[in-house]
Amino acid sequence: MSNPFSLHGRRGLVVGIANESSIAYAVARTIRELGGEVAATYLNAKAEKFVRPLAEGLGAPIILPCDVSRPGELEAVFESMQARWGTIDYVVHSIAFSPLNELHGRLVDSTSEGFRIAMDVSCHSFIRMARLAEPLMPKGGTLLAMSYYGAEKVIEHYDLMGPVKAALESSVRYLAAELGPNNIRVNCISPGPMLTRAASGIKDFDELMADATTRSPLGRLATPEDVGRLAAFYIAETGSNITGNIGYVDAGYHALG
Ligand code: NAD
């Protein structure tokens, strides 16, 4: 009997590796450990020197620039995967962005342009990835995005990103409904606070981590490696009947309500 947890023969894209602490890097490592292949991207020339060695260490056959707000870059990544592999099995979207002044202000004071940028990079880019992935997944596949509990409940200092992540979670459900008939599963993972570069932009993040540690039922923080394992579970045969789902990797914090 074949191992339903195995990722042997699964090929796909992980977007969001910035450095060794990135959740995307832990996801990509787990995929490789379980036998899958990973195409990786870096944001721009400045990021390339950090990301390329990590991606090469993962044996990534495709390493390309991808700023989702630059027209053509995302399309070029999918064209490259099609040329090399023909079809793909998964896409992992592990990116988020908000202009810092917006993130550090109140939602009520957010500008239309700041909100648009955050929504485009952190949410609509996932929809664009789904559109580009669909023709490359003729037998089905898995699309995964990273959300956060601030989508559901008010988390201090998360502000603008709350409604953006709520839109991302809603998009996951609508995409799951639209792409289900093509056997494409669409899910998101909601990790607890983890010390990454994106997280360092959130004011008083250390307090958020301390609260998550003391109040979560398990009394500890979840790790990017935990997220990697759940991501692999969704991508492997194990996830074949799971779609439109939010998987919490937060030591149970969300259960407190
Ligand atoms: P990170 O800084 O390592 O990763 C964020 C990534 O977003 C970076 O690789 C960055 O290059 C990429 N990015 C930003 N703008 C982009 C653009 N225009 N085009 C392409 N890529 C762009 O931080 P992380 O914590 O690993 O974040 C990954 C995901 O996890 C994000 O969606 C984040 O909201 C989510 N998340 C993080 C935490 C946490 O506490 N760290 C908790 C829950 C959810």
Task: Give an account of the 3D structure.
The protein is of the alpha/beta class and 257 residues long. The protein has a single domain (11-249), classed as Rossmann fold, CATH 3.40.50. The protein contains eight helices and seven strands, in the order βαβαβαβααβαβααβ. It has helices spanning 23-33, 45-57, 73-85, 100-103, 112-133, 161-179, 205-215, 224-235; strands at residues 11-15, 37-42, 63-65, 90-93, 141-146, 184-191, 246-249. A seven-stranded parallel beta sheet has the order 3-2-1-4-5-6-7, with helices on both faces. Helix 2 (45-57) links the parallel strand 2 and strand 3 (63-65). Helix 1 packs across helix 8 (224-235) and helix 5 (112-133) packs parallel to helix 6 (161-179). The chain starts with 10 loop residues before the first strand and ends in an 8-residue tail after the last strand. The mean pLDDT is 97. Bound molecules: nicotinamide-adenine-dinucleotide (NAD). Nicotinamide-adenine-dinucleotide binds at residues 16-18, 21-24, 43, 47, 66-69, 94-97, 121, 146, 148, 191, 193-194, 196-199.
Question: Can you write the helix and strand succession as a string?
Answer: EHEHEHEHHEHEHHE
Looking at CATH, the homologous superfamily is NAD(P)-binding Rossmann-like Domain
Task: State the helicity in percent bands.
Answer: 40-55%
CATH level 1 class label: Alpha Beta
**CATH fold description:** Rossmann fold
Q: What small ligands are held by the chains? A: nicotinamide-adenine-dinucleotide
Stretches where pLDDT is under 50 for at least 5 consecutive residues are none
What's the end-to-end separation, in Å? 41 Å
Number of domains: 1
> Largest sheet, described in full?
7 strands, parallel
Lateral strand order in the biggest sheet: 3-2-1-4-5-6-7
Beta percentage is 5-15%
Shape: globular
Oligomeric state, counting identical vs distinct chains? single chain
Structural class: alpha/beta
Q: Mean pLDDT across all residues, rounded?
A: 97
CATH architecture name: 3-Layer(aba) Sandwich
